[in-house]
Predict the 3D structure of the following.
Amino acid sequence: MIISPSILSADFANLEHDIKAVKTADWLHIDVMDGHFVPNITIGVPVVASIRKVTDMPLDVHLMIENPEKYIEVFAKAGADILTFHYEAASDVKAIIKKIKSFGIKAGMSIKPKTPVDVVFPYLNDLDMVLVMTVEPGFGGQKFMQNCAEKIPAIKEKAHDSLIIQVDGGINAETARICTSYGANSLVAGNYIYKSADIKSAIASLR
Ligand code: DX5
Ligand code: ZN
């Protein structure tokens, strides 16, 4: 199980401290929002580059931006290890995947709650990861949507053995169990981890 704490719920004035606080997890989830694809604006390239200097954890960068193809190179060079774009924002999915992989990093594609699962099928062989959003992207702390997690078995059925199926949004110990029972093997969690009194136990409880 790949646990990826979302620093969207961290204290941005104490980011290095809050990154080190989740070192028992596997990846670090970084939400990049542009104010167009989603109504919120968060982290950009210079922050990813600064984070790269203070942790060895793989950086799991979730691009919630329009025109993702324009920003692949800069995020790869800033230190992303996994770069996930949104299907809804992509004009040429195959070209985007190819470009991400050309930097020797993992390519992920995400779908929003209202996007039907079958749009991912043609790309499963090219992708390293599919990210199934279990809330509308844009903000932390929203309620988990179970009907989104129900998309997972159809992906799993058609996926190659090493495909990572990640879920993001409203994940806690209880919803994590639902997602893993459907076949998810990577969990993003923001509020559940960062708002907990004992971060280490919260991470352990997701495993
Ligand atoms: C939402 C982001 C998530 C967010 C999850 O658009 O993609 O990564 O941080 O936050 P929680 O776990 O609090 O729902
Ligand atoms: Zn995310």
